[in-house]
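Quick log. Single chain, no ligands specified.
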Amino acid sequence: MNDDLRTRLVMAARLAMSQPPAAEPPDGYLKRCEFCGQLIYLKQDWDGQWRPYESWVAGTVDEGEWKTHDCDCE
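-> predicted structure:
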């Protein structure tokens, strides 16, 4: 392999390794509950089902805590 080709391959490999990995799409989003109006987090779980969770943004749970949203209107 000639030195010019080797240099280009090494540079391309370094560039590829320096790029951050592509961000994964979010698996959920914030919205208001249709029944009680509280801010909740809708999350697509590992099984593909969308489930409502309490939101730490709304202050109903601590950050990192997962508790399903359960309002009396359902």
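The chain is about 20% helix and 20% strand.
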